[in-house]
């Protein structure tokens, strides 16, 4: 299949990388643009074009949304491998995502919102894992350009995430929410048009067919299982609606339970498998504290899009005339560009630092510990301005500093987590181990759906101190467990 791909045409890389770069840029533009104003749309008054939810519910729903996107990625990867191939999964996912953003741009209130969430969750689950698979398929396994190709590709993620809050946030501030959501839909439509025009001549045969298609017997068995599952879910939803149990609060509890159970089941299946050797089981044991550390980190990082997003809108001085002396009111959504900005700025610095340290490069557990330290510090520093209580507006540099500290932690922990997941994976579960790593984010956001309920009763200062303090406690535990983890990694560093 690699032979069917034009091997040049995009800065010395396969021509198809340029198409996928463009598609991913606009998909991330649409996702992060929509997310930048989503929580405001949910809790703003109906008269202002919002849905009129309370802030706690809005923050919880935003967390559920993020968790379900990562959970459905497991299903999307399975469908691509066993049923329809990565390219069809990518295309169907992109169409659903565009439909979701279009639904959100329509002024039909909660029904349009729910339809949009469903479409984007399913679409992202189909697209997110499979576009990376297609990128990898452009290269031979021994092609020295592959790592650089992925670096170029992932730059599209941060470029889309950096640009979109500025555009979507300005549209929401100066016009309305629906125009902002429409901009996200247009971005996704651009990606689709370019993909449909150029994919066949640029991507060859890569990802057209499933890599491990279902046998006839498996098709029959899985069809029955899926039909049974759909019927069961439908019955439960209907019963919940009739009894008055169905609500965002109930659904958030279900998502949280799923977020905890799924990784436990995933891990248990691998650990008890007869195909896993004693050495591989030892490495899986070492992976447990790393997974827990990852969940704690993403719990803090992902609150940038709900708790800190609300803080930016409600408690941060956005009038620059009162801060820096020039007359402009900054849209609160612009704070969502801070994270990708610092990632683009600091990623080369952190990468160069690890290379410079050479043999003194911190071990994997220590990098995880450092990530937790900075994540905890990013919340603890927010205790300083909020200790006085009241409803005064705080200097925006507090939020900027918080995002900066969390990004440093992210650059220490996130790339290391992806890498060590591949290195520690049992041979029989090599691809599924990376799915397990993605579940750190799903689990974190599922837990966040409950944690955000503590903001109102605790107040910002106590809430930041509580979550930041948990991260520091885990940092200390990771430092204490450093040697144990390293020993059980059995030669992996």
Automatic annotation (TrEMBL):
Topological category with respect to the lipid bilayer: Multi-pass membrane protein
SUPFAM superfamilies cross-referenced by the UniProt entry: MFS general substrate transporter (SSF103473)
GO cellular component: plasma membrane
TM region(s), chain numbering: 58-78, 90-108, 114-139, 151-171, 177-198, 225-245, 251-272, 284-301, 328-354, 366-387, 460-481
InterPro entries: Dipep/tripep_permease (IPR005279), MFS_dom (IPR020846), MFS_trans_sf (IPR036259), MFS_Transporters (IPR050171), POT_fam (IPR000109), PTR2_symporter_CS (IPR018456)
GO biological process, one term: tripeptide transmembrane transport
Annotated compartments: Cell membrane; Membrane
Record GO terms (molecular function): dipeptide transmembrane transporter activity; peptide:proton symporter activity; tripeptide transmembrane transporter activity
Taxonomic superkingdom: Bacteria
Annotated Major facilitator superfamily (MFS) profile domain residues: 19-486
Pfam families according to UniProt: PTR2 (PF00854)
Coiled-coil region list: none
Protein keywords: Cell membrane, Membrane, Transmembrane, Transmembrane helix, Transport
Predominant cellular place of this UniProt entry's protein: membrane
CDD domains to which the protein is assigned, alphabetical: MFS_DtpA_like
Family, as annotated: Belongs to the major facilitator superfamily. Proton-dependent oligopeptide transporter (POT/PTR) (TC 2.A.17) family.
Record protein name field: Peptide MFS transporter
Organism: Macrococcus equipercicus
């Amino acid at each position: 299949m690699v032979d069917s791909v034009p091997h040049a045409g995009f800065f010395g890389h396969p021509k198809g990388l340029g198409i996928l770069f463009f598609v991913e840029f606009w998909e991330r533009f649409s996702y992060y643009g929509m997310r930048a104003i989503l929580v405001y749309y949910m809790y703003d008054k109906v008269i202002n074009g919002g849905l009129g939810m309370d802030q706690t519910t809005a923050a919880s729903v935003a967390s559920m949304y993020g968790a379900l996107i990562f959970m459905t990625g497991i299903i999307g990867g399975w469908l691509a491998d066993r049923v329809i191939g990565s390219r069809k999964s990518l295309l169907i996912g992109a169409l659903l995502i565009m439909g979701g953003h279009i639904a959100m741009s329509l002024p039909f209130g909660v029904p349009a919102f729910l339809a949009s969430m469903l479409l984007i969750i399913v679409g992202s689950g189909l697209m997110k894992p499979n576009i990376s698979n297609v990128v990898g398929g452009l290269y031979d396994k021994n092609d020295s350009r592959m790592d650089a190709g992925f670096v170029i590709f992932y730059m599209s993620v941060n470029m889309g995430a950096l640009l979109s809050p500025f555009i979507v946030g300005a549209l929401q501030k100066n016009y309305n929410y629906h125009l902002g959501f429409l901009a996200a839909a247009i971005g996704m439509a651009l990606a689709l048009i370019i993909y449909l025009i150029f994919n066949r001549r640029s991507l060859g045969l890569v990802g057209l067919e499933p890599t491990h298609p279902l046998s006839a017997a498996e098709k029959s068995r899985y069809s029955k299982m899926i039909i049974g599952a759909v019927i069961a879910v439908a019955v439960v939803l209907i019963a919940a609606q009739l009894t008055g149990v169905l609500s965002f609060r109930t659904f958030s509890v279900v998502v949280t339970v799923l977020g905890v159970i799924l990784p436990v089941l995933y891990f248990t299946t691998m650990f008890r498998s007869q195909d896993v050797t004693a050495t591989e089981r030892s490495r899986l044991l070492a992976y447990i504290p790393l997974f827990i550390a990852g969940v704690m980190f993403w719990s803090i990082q992902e609150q940038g899009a709900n708790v800190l997003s609300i803080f930016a809108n409600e408690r941060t001085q956005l009038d620059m005339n009162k801060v820096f002396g020039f007359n402009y009111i900054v849209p609160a959504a612009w704070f969502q560009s801070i994270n990708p900005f610092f990632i683009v700025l600091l990623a080369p610095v952190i990468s160069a630092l690890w290379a410079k340290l050479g043999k003194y490069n911190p071990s994997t557990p220590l990098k995880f510990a450092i990530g937790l330290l900075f994540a905890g510090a990013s919340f603890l520093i927010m205790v300083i301005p909020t200790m006085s209580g009241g409803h005064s507006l705080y200097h925006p540099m507090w939020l900027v500093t918080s995002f900066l500290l969390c990004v440093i932690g992210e650059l220490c922990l996130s790339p290391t987590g992806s890498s060590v997941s591949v290195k520690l994976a049992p041979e029989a579960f090599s691809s599924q181990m990376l799915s397990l790593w993605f579940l750190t984010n799903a689990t974190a956001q599922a837990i966040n759906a409950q944690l955000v309920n503590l903001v109102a009763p605790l107040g910002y200062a106590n809430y930041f101190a509580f979550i930041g303090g948990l991260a520091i406690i885990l940092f200390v535990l990771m430092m204490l467990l450093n040697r144990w983890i390293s020993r059980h990694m059995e030669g992996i560093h």
